Amino acid sequence: MKRRYAVLFRVLLLIIALFFILRGCRDAGPFIYVRLDDKSNQSLNTDYPGSDIDAIEIIRDGAVVGTANLVVDSHLLDGAAGNTNKFKDLSQILGLANYDTKTRKNYVALGGNGGYVIVKMNVPLQPGDIVRVCEIGAGSGGSAEPCTVAIARNPAGPFRVIGKGAGPFEVVVPAAVD
Ligand SMILES: [Ca+2]
Q1: Is 106 helix (H, G, I), strand (E, B) or coil?
Q2: Ligand 1 centre and the CA of 63: distance in Å?
Q3: Mean pLDDT of all residues belonging to the chain
Q4: Whole-angstrom Cα distance, residue 136 to residue 18?
């Protein structure tokens, strides 16, 4: 009987150890995924409903050192009921900002509250880095629509929200992100 308890105890210890090892693997490594969640509730009866994202850039020491290079997940909406979002080309969020003020193209519209996109950056984020979200604001012929910025080590998360803004805006990667 005692022996059986000893075996059970060891199995239990093994399970606990495995749990912590697997958890460590799941959430280790640098922050390299960025998630934008559309928080807008207006301008939803347009061809470009919600937050209009041209690019996500990483700025370090005053220079752009990285951009989004892969869309890993997204949920684009159509805005108001009966409306159609004509800017669903997700490739437009990749690379450097290239919004064309004449043709008013080269961005993706998230579609309003509930729309989101998750991208992988080509450079891991470091504390102190600036994440610049190039949202097409009033200054570029659109209207500024808010979205939140969250970062993660893995595409499935967990994601930590590090800021919110509308129009072109910047958030700093905090030193203590765990
Ligand atoms: Ca673009």
Answers
A1: coil
A2: 18
A3: 92
A4: 47
